[in-house]
Amino acid sequence: LTERFSKIFNKLSNQGKLTEKNIKETLREVEQALLEADVALSVVQNFTSSISKSCIGKSIEKSFTPGQELIKIVKQELIEILGKENNHLNLSTQNPSVIMIVGLQGHGKTTSIVKLGKMLKNTKNKKILLVSTDIYRPAAIKQLEVLSKKAKIDFYPSNIDQKPIQIVTKALEFAALKLYDILLIDTAGRLHTDKYMIDEVTNIQKKIQPIETLLVIDAMVGQDAINIVNNFNTNMSITGFIITKTDSDTRAGIALSMRFITKKPIKFISHGESLNEFEIFHPNRIVNRILGMGDMLSLIENIKNKINKENIKKFTHTIKSQNKFSYNDLLVQIQQIKKIGNVTKILNKLPKTGTIFKNIQYNINEQLLFKMETIIHSMTIEERKKPELIKGLRKRRIAKGSGISIQEINSLLKQFNNIKMMVNTIKKGGISKMMKGINK
Ligand code: GDP
Ligand code: MG
């Protein structure tokens, strides 16, 4: 997927304008990319036709290439669908507000409800009570108890001999009596949606009338999410979603489908097993994730600022005259590469950055560059021009000056050739090409 977007990006950055023809071509690839991100087909088709409309006739901002412009529009449109604002919980009822969590077994209901409780307690200073109606697995109630303790939230005990309705009625009475702000109800799930489970949670919902009923969906289920969501959503009133396990290697395209089909908001995202790995849903982040390219635009800006045109000219010029490649040239290059290196550090942090950056990531070994730099600084001008001069005594002097051992200098000098090769790689299609593209 990422590769696809990089390709799209590369293709477009070599063209002058966003024409009807290249929009069409590109959108076909965008469609494919979204399908790979597990976005449902109907959603994808709807999406690309709406994009197509917003693109045609749109003038391109001067600072953008057509590729950037298109990606910008794609992002805006995705964010639009996912809801521009974060969707907060509705807690404006009389206390206690009741929030109920539903979903299939193993999707992360129990974990999420505790995380949510912890978040509400810590950020909104709410007095929280947790209760479980999962009477089918004794371990499930225990699990909630253990996690509650860990999160320092009050737990209302229940047991497998009680009926779910009984449990919630009593818990609500208790919560009201003890002036809790929020009662969080964890429910039982099953492996597949079935009538019995839906009936049970629907009955609880009717009895208790929670202000929020959140459906938990595991991001890893992919396309199947739509069936699960529809099953719950048509049988009971769902007020929003929690998407879990977004830390797994999924593109979370289901978020887009869920929102598009149900028009219900995604309220929270869970991205790990630890209790803090939970946050309010930000459309922006999930869009970057679906597109798999991090915040490409701001990164490109960043690279642009770090490397000015003049330097690129020098850089490519030196590469071209490689036979005369000396330590002085290398020094200039190292300084350039280090600047890019800072950017690749950011890149590396992002989810799966595009192939256009792979060359650089692969080639930059910062420590090596730093040592090379130090060694070169300890060389005389003569030595920098003629690497073959560096033997015995000179080597010892450089070692002393740079504080790097002779053995290491030997091995690093050998790497000089490797560096040359690295520069070669860059010349062939890596950095210089990329930089030319973004500095148009
Ligand atoms: P429930 O059956 O729906 O209540 O699901 P649980 O809350 O018991 O979670 C099932 C498993 O998924 C547990 O092992 C959790 O630790 C794990 N889990 C839940 N949320 C996440 C998440 O966001 N990321 C990861 N990696 N694991 C999660
Ligand atoms: Mg559970």
UniProtKB/TrEMBL annotation:
**Main subcellular localisation:** cytoplasm
The terms under GO molecular function for this entry are: 7S RNA binding; GTP binding; GTPase activity
One cellular-component annotation, GO: signal recognition particle
Q: Which keywords accompany this UniProt record?
A: Cytoplasm, GTP-binding, Hydrolase, Nucleotide-binding, Ribonucleoprotein, RNA-binding, Signal recognition particle
What region holds the SRP54-type proteins GTP-binding domain? Answer: 265-278
Enzyme Commission number(s) of this protein: 3.6.5.4
Which SUPFAM superfamilies does the record associate with it?
Domain of the SRP/SRP receptor G-proteins (SSF47364), P-loop containing nucleoside triphosphate hydrolases (SSF52540), Signal peptide-binding domain (SSF47446)
Q: Name one GO biological process term.
A: SRP-dependent cotranslational protein targeting to membrane
**Which positions does UniProt annotate for GTP binding?**
103-110, 186-190, 244-247
- Which top EC class is named for this enzyme in its record? hydrolase
CDD domains assigned:
SRP_G (cd18539)
Q: What is known of its domains?
A: Composed of three domains: the N-terminal N domain, which is responsible for interactions with the ribosome, the central G domain, which binds GTP, and the C-terminal M domain, which binds the RNA and the signal sequence of the RNC.
Q: What job does this protein perform?
A: Involved in targeting and insertion of nascent membrane proteins into the cytoplasmic membrane. Binds to the hydrophobic signal sequence of the ribosome-nascent chain (RNC) as it emerges from the ribosomes. The SRP-RNC complex is then targeted to the cytoplasmic membrane where it interacts with the SRP receptor FtsY. Interaction with FtsY leads to the transfer of the RNC complex to the Sec translocase for insertion into the membrane, the hydrolysis of GTP by both Ffh and FtsY, and the dissociation of the SRP-FtsY complex into the individual components.
What family, per the record? Belongs to the GTP-binding SRP family. SRP54 subfamily.
Name under which the protein is recorded: Signal recognition particle protein
**Per the UniProt entry, what species is this protein from, by scientific name?**
Buchnera aphidicola subsp. Schlechtendalia chinensis
Q: Supply the source organism's classification.
A: Bacteria, Pseudomonadati, Pseudomonadota, Gammaproteobacteria, Enterobacterales
